[in-house]
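G., the chain you wanted modeled:
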Amino acid sequence: MFIVNSKGLKKYYGTFLAVKGIDFEIKEGECFGFLGPNGAGKTTVMRMIQCFMEPSEGVLEVFGMDTKKYPSKIKEKIGVMPQENNLDPDLSVEENLIVYANYFDIKKKVAKEKGEELLRFVDMLEYKKYKIDKLSGGMKRKLVLARALINGPDLIILDEPTTGLDPQSRHNVWDMLKILKSKGKTSILTTHYMEEADNLCDRVAIMDSGLIIESGKPEELKNKYGGNLEDVYLKLTGKKLEN
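Predicted structure as tokens:
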């Protein structure tokens, strides 16, 4: 079963064509990665999948539903980990989860239980009463991940999940994402860290200037073009990715 299906997907910002007609399918239970630098179109694709914005042209279906016709139903089944740590600084760690759960009509008592379970999962239960400004960058990213899971989503969107983190914090987040994958969760990852894609993704789509220029399993791409994924990207685009 395909969780996401796209044909000829385009997105204009005014007269600027940010996504230039791309096709891709994402299978249930896999981690699918969009790789490329800032400005490649990755985040725009994510925003269309999560029904934050409508496609300009083409077909985009999530859970078999047209994103233009059924945005509310699709949003109910998606968890989003955005690039920004857009947590409420006036609330505690625990309160951030409980208030967010309200958007999904989750009762406060249930939200509190779910919140504790998720804080345990991301190894932050002891910090549940802390205010956001007391957290490190790595802890904030883990809390944003916990928040993305509060509604028990069938699809998790991870937009540059470890940008700005030190190597240890990055690996901590990777470990959590691997656990979610082992539980059968479907996820979509955008990243410019090739090592991250290699570690987490079943299949990847390499994007540049609004186009998918190659896609496949990381091992297949490395065998086809030689070297690691960063070498593959350089060979395909003539560009180096900046970490």
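The mean pLDDT is 94.

Shout if anything looks off.
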